[in-house]
Specification:
Layout (H helix, E strand, L loop, with lengths): L1 H21 L29 E10 L2 E7 L7 E22 L4 E16 L5 H8 L2 E13 L4 E14 L11 E14 L2 E10 L6 E11 L4 E7 L2 E9 L2 E17 L7 E20 L2 E9 L1 E8 L10 E4 L6 E10 L2
């Protein structure tokens, strides 16, 4: 026993040295200084609604009036109609081309088609065209989100769309083309708050406008937040959970649509369509990255005018100004979203 105790006392200092040596195996200084790494902000705030990569949806409007359509393109006399409804189809794709912490670049395509169901259009040239052909808009777009550092970022967006009531593909021409875009400079104030200001060229109200824009996405707490891109849209958000979100707000939609109309001065007119939609929306995760959206609200007629020539500067002749009725509407879509 005495010999065993002596052996233990002899080995104890050696074990201590071995432990000290083991702690010196990793030299953390070789991994560099983390404070020297440049960091960049991202494009989201906490609990923000997921961004749609692929979206297919429809909307249905109720009955409304279509007053003051011209009896003839060359005469001031007007005639009113009743619409039993309007059906709309929407589809969009936004694919990330480059997605790194230094830049996010997306390319996309979109389609928006609406057809008014007019009761007894008869031989009226404009009413019959509206009831048998869609107000169609299709085009491409691109968006660049460029973080400058942890606090500042740039957003540049541009789109080109062909809009019109086309009887065939041959009708599509450069007069039906509209170009829109925006540029913003912003501040990522925290993971719950980001703010941006800039300028935009838009046709959302039915005619070309150049105006200031404000981006403000803010999460107040685990349940409440807001997502604003004024004046285009703005919503107050409530998160039941990470997979169920309700929003209350509005969106301004529209564009300028080319149409061939025999009898008019140039054989064509431009229909300027703008509408404001106060609405409530519900986004629900179905599985994985597949989400369902349902919305309901009011379609308020902002503008529905028929023009002879309108290129942003010259207004030659106004054929009609129709104060369309303001029906309720519902809409649904399936959306494949980003992580």
């Amino acid at each position: 026993m005495r010999n065993l105790l002596s052996f233990f006392l002899y080995c104890l200092p050696l074990l201590s040295v071995a432990q000290e040596d083991s702690t010196e195996v990793f030299d953390y200084s070789r991994f560099g200084d983390a404070q020297g790494v440049k960091r960049y902000c991202n494009q989201k705030v906490l609990n923000q609604t997921p961004q749609r990569i692929i979206s297919i949806g429809m909307e249905q409007l109720g009955e409304f009036t279509v007053p003051d359509l011209p009896l003839s393109a060359m005469l001031p006399a007007m005639q009113s109609f009743s619409a039993t409804g309007m059906f709309g189809l929407k589809a969009q794709v936004n694919i990330p081309v480059v997605s790194t912490n230094k830049i996010i670049w997306q390319l996309g395509a979109n389609y928006w088609g609406s057809r008014i169901s007019i009761e007894n259009p008869g031989t009226h040239p404009l009413a019959s065209r509206l009831s048998t052909h869609s107000l169609a808009s299709t085009g491409i777009n691109t968006t660049i989100f460029k973080p400058l550092n942890e606090k500042n970022f740039l957003i540049v967006q541009a789109s080109a769309d062909f809009n019109g009531i086309f009887q065939s593909v041959k009708d599509i021409n450069n007069k039906a083309l509209t170009i829109s875009g925006s540029a913003l400079y912003g501040w990522k104030l925290s993971e719950k708050n980001m703010l941006g200001i800039g300028l935009a060229r838009t046709y959302r109200a039915g005619q070309i406008m150049h105006l200031p824009v404000v981006l403000w996405n803010k999460t107040f707490n685990d349940k409440w937040g807001m997502e604003l891109l004024l004046p285009a849209r703005g919503h107050l958000r409530y998160n039941f959970s990470t997979a169920s979100i309700v929003q209350l707000g509005f969106e301004l939609e529209g564009n300028q649509f080319w149409m061939r109309l025999p009898g008019s001065a140039n054989g064509t007119i431009f229909i300027q369509r703008g509408e404001l939609k106060p609405r409530i929306m519900w986004d629900k995760k179905l599985t994985g990255f597949l989400w369902f959206n349902a919305q309901a609200g009011l379609r308020y007629n902002w503008r529905f005018d028929g023009m002879d020539v309108y290129n942003g500067k010259k207004l030659s002749q106004r054929y009609f100004t129709s104060a369309l009725g303001n029906p309720l509407y519902v809409g649904f879509s399936l959306n494949f979203v980003s992580p």
